[in-house]
Amino acid sequence: MTQARCLSPLHILLPLLFSLLSCSACLRGVEASRTPEDNFRALWTLIDEHYCFLDYKRETLGVDWAEVYGRYHAQLSPAMQPIQLFEVLSHMLSELRDGHVNLYCSADVGRNWSWREDYPENLDRELRDAYLGTDYRIASGLKYRILPDNIGYIVYESFSNAVGEGNIDDCLYYLRSCNGLIIDVRGNTGGQLDNAQRLSSHFTNERRLVGYMTHKTGKAHNAFSAPQPEYINPSTGIRWQKRCVVLTNRSCYSATNAFVRNMKECPLVTVMGDQTGGGSGLPFTSELPNGWVVRFSACPMYDARMEHTEFGIAPDIPLALDIEAAQHGSDSMIDYARAWLLK
Amino acid sequence: MLLVALLLLIALPAFAQPQAGQDRLRQRLHLSSHEESVRFPREHATTFAIGRVNHYDSYLSPLEYRGPKLTVLYETAHFLRSRSKAATDGAHPRLSFHSLLSLDASFASSPANGTDNVGGGVAYEAGWRYNWHDVILPRLRLQAGGTLGTTAGFLYTTRSGNNPANARLQLRLSGVVAAHYDTRLARLPIHIRYQAELPLVGMAFAPRYGQSYYELSEYGTDRNLGFISPHNALTLRQYLTLDLSFRLFYLRLGYLSDLSQLRLNGLEQHQFARSFVLGWARTL
Predict the structure, then answer these.
(1) Per-residue pLDDT tens for A27-57?
(2) Does the pLDDT at position A9 exceed 70?
(3) CA–CA gap between residue A89 and residue A110 (Å, rounded)
(4) Is B19 near chain A, with CB under 8 Å?
(5) Smallest Cβ distance to B63: which of A215, A287, A298?
(6) Is A17 within 8 Å of B266 when comparing Cβ atoms?
(7) How many domains would you assign to chain B?
């Protein structure tokens, strides 16, 4: 009889209801807080549990995230001003040397842009504008024209500027009689991956493996899903069938890095210029208890050989901008690409 | 597919009652139309629940967001006719069918920086309940039963780039208990109801711990559907209503408490909503 009472539904349901009503079993988020301690811990934990390159940065840069905690926690003080806390937290994030890691407050953006600031820019925008002239065409994000030696020239300044299949088709149709094509993505710091995929699909005639993508499956630094192969499928529109040069510099980041990765797998494409800036982690956004917004790399992307591209992609032909020639109105990188295409 | 078929099977009685079948049954039970409407009332209620919600979704933010929530509910309920001897003798019907369609929208803000979350969803549930009439007190009716329900919704944050929103999809089997009491307030007939619903088993969608929707859309799902039960989705929906009877309709006042939680694929979310309810009900 006693046993039967123990098994009655009420004995299961009542504690369940009580625990729910008392909220002892509730899943709770973090409460808003402005204390340096709470915000430091929240940021350190967020990166520790969600940032996707901690093991890779340990191998390549020697970043020990646990050691970072101790070093920066020692700089905290309960009386510090918010902007002082912001500096400490920004410096802590800078250890990762990742352009996709940022801290945003109303007064500033914490960043590490060493991926481009530590290198020559290899781009003179005024000079490039001179090559485009004033009568160039604009197809959404693409600016294009035919250079005097019958080479097509496309400038794509940001993958945040959307391009549709129609834009790309119209552009390539206009350039169809050219002897070669230059796509200049120098200074393009990224944008939407969809645009990168769409544009690169016009340079392959077959489904092509271009890389892999994974995501974190748990808090451990090495908890990742099985790599998911990434392909570009040939566009059903106009596909370029002649040689093509992609011009790069260190500012080619994020989606532009992915575009260069894709184009390197296409047989008629040659990448010229400087190494790209990298940024191969798809960034997520979160926030701290005081409301500051944090951006961080969440999903790593690899190339077709399953190699990291976080620190950039080397060009097939390294080129640097000749400053002296630039002063005489010549972009040596564009001119080299034109001559190479005409060979 | 099997679950969808089950849901349709349960939902069908709410929408389709072939007239010929009703007539045959009425004749067999020797009931006039008026007698039938008294013994087997069909109730339709449309109500608006206005209240506050507390959102937490670790995929989007570690913080809890709070703000107003509006829910529109459309409830139907009716007793099922029985061919048993007790039923033909005029005893109270024992089995009833209930359905609830709800649409909700919420607008919650972060307490830290005023960032907004916009949420929305639609839910439908239907099921049967067994009724015990005049239990303990005259005019007190107790109910116990089960419902099969589904929810589809989203939570969108205005702050994020690659993880700006999270989808909510759920199919669940719940246990329901309810108590109904008819009495009078002065000379006005009133009907009081308390109802509690506890999801017991089901399936829910959640992205993987660090999975982007870009990856989901480009490469498909990766074990994104998971089993739920109170061990990882302890949820309770309570509904208290007071129906004031007027000549043509009932004015329904009430309080709705919807505490739902989910822990799946390493992610956590909750939605604690408490609302006051105002609407009308009609008995056909």
Answers:
(1) 888 888 899 999 999 999 999 999 999 999 9
(2) no
(3) 8
(4) no
(5) A287
(6) no
(7) 1
Query: What is the gyration radius of the CA atoms in chain B, in angstroms?
Result: 21
SS3 B221: coil
A20 touches chain B (CB under 8 A): yes
Q: At residue A193, what is the residue type?
A: L
Q: What is the pLDDT of residues A81-128, one digit of tens each?
A: 999 999 999 999 999 999 999 999 999 999 999 999 999 999 999 999
The minimum CA-CA distance between B60 and chain A, rounded to whole Å, is 6
Measure CB to CB from residue A20 to each of B62, B113, B236 and give the nearest one: B236
Which domain does B224 fall in, by range?
2-15+44-81+97-283
**B39, part of any domain:** no
Among A189, A217, A294, the residue to mutate for chain B (most B Cβ within 10 A): A217
Q: Is residue B75 part of a domain?
A: yes
Instruction: Please tell me the distance from the alpha carbon of residue B39 to that of residue B216, in angstroms, as a whole number.
Output: 52
Q: Which domains does chain A have, with CATH numbers?
A: 36-117 (3.30.750.44), 125-286+308-342 (3.90.226.10)
Query: Any idea what the CATH number is for the domain that residue B146 is in?
Result: 2.40.128
Provide the shortest C-alpha distance from residue A27 to chain B (in Å). Answer: 7
Which site among B194, B200, B209 would you substitute to test the A interface, given the most A Cβ atoms closer than 10 Å to its Cβ?
Answer: B209
Of B62, B159, B266, the CB nearest to A293: B159
B176, B197 contact by CB (below 8 A): yes
Assess whether pLDDT exceeds 50 at residue A7. Answer: no
**Residue A299 pLDDT greater than 70, yes or no:** yes
User: Does residue B91 sit within a domain?
Assistant: no
Taking Cα atoms as reference points, which of A276, A283, A278 lies closest to residue A310?
A: A278
C-beta separation of A337 from A147 below 8 A: no
| Residue A258: per-residue pLDDT | 98
* Residue of A182, A174, A183, A177 lying closest to A137 (CA atoms): A174
Tokens of A100: 């996709």
Using DSSP's 3-state secondary structure scheme, residue B139 falls into coil
Task: Tell me what pLDDT residue A251 has.
Answer: 97
Looking up tokens 């160039």, which residue turns up?
Answer: A136
SS (H, E, C) B245-276: ECCCCEEEEEEEEEEEEEEECCEEEEEEEEEE
